[in-house]
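We close this part of the discussion by returning to an individual protein. Part of our work consisted of pairing the sequence of a single chain with a tokenised description of its backbone. The amino acid sequence and the backbone structure tokens for this protein are reproduced below.
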Amino acid sequence: MEAVLSIGSNMADRQALLDGVIEHFAEAEQLRAASRTYATPPWGVTDQEDFLNATLLVEVPDEPLELLRRCQALENAAHRVRERRWGPRTLDVDIIQIRRDGHELLSEDPTLTLPHPWAHARAFVLIPWAEIEPEAQLRGQPIAELIAALPDDDVQAVTPP
């Protein structure tokens, strides 16, 4: 099973936290690609530090809910606290898309909605993803088209640090 993961941090040693996730999948020989790290302004709640974000392509034997638990364990190991929605956090490890045999899995399960319900609208997810999979599609739409449909300010705000 292939998965696209979006990772982000805006607390503590942001780059080290992202590198820890990358190393976790690399050591398990499950990392297929990792984007550069991008600096991005906070989304939703703006009175906080900028984020560092990256996108990973991993190939894992896990079932979707097992991968979700694994991502949550990485967040917990980074002392992730969910005090307020879209607030500061040490680490986010979000599942954006899962593919099995080349087919995108769809799920409306509130525990794990696939693809990620807001991925199509977030430049900090799509731009790093396009770097590692330029031909990727989300719900049948090329991510390049999704990026082109975003506000210019959102796209220009996602920059290499």
Observations:
- The domain at 2-156 is CATH 3.30.70.560 (Alpha-Beta Plaits).
- The CA atoms of residues 123 and 155 lie 6 Å apart.
- The first helix runs from residue 14 to 27.
